[in-house]
Amino acid sequence: MAGAAAELRAHGAAVAHVRVGFTTSGAVLSTVTDAADRDYRLYLLSDCVAAPDRRTHDALMTAVLPRLAHLIDAAELCALLHRPR
């Protein structure tokens, strides 16, 4: 994320979309935590992540990740991207 953060800031980005990783307890958690520490406003697609252990996934999705990112689903992202400005 460090190299990506510099690139995003250089282009004036205020929003970082987490597009890497699949495992909630692995790359997703790591990337979201790092981006939140860098003060990005984050949207995590809740219907596009999973984990081998359902209890771990549910705990992260209910107790940890909502404090770091806005949890939305793919349909909500499409609506956000297509709304008039």
From TrEMBL:
**Single GO MF descriptor:** hydrolase activity
Please give the superkingdom of this protein's source.
Bacteria
The keyword Transmembrane helix belongs to this UniProt entry's keyword annotation = no
Pfam families in UniProt: Isochorismatase
Sorted UniProt keywords: Hydrolase
Does the keyword Repressor feature in the UniProt annotation?
A: no
Looking at the record, the residues that make up the Isochorismatase-like domain are: 18-76
Tell me the protein's name. Answer: Isochorismatase hydrolase
* Organism whose genome encodes this protein: Nonomuraea gerenzanensis
Lineage summary: Bacteria, Bacillati, Actinomycetota, Actinomycetes, Streptosporangiales
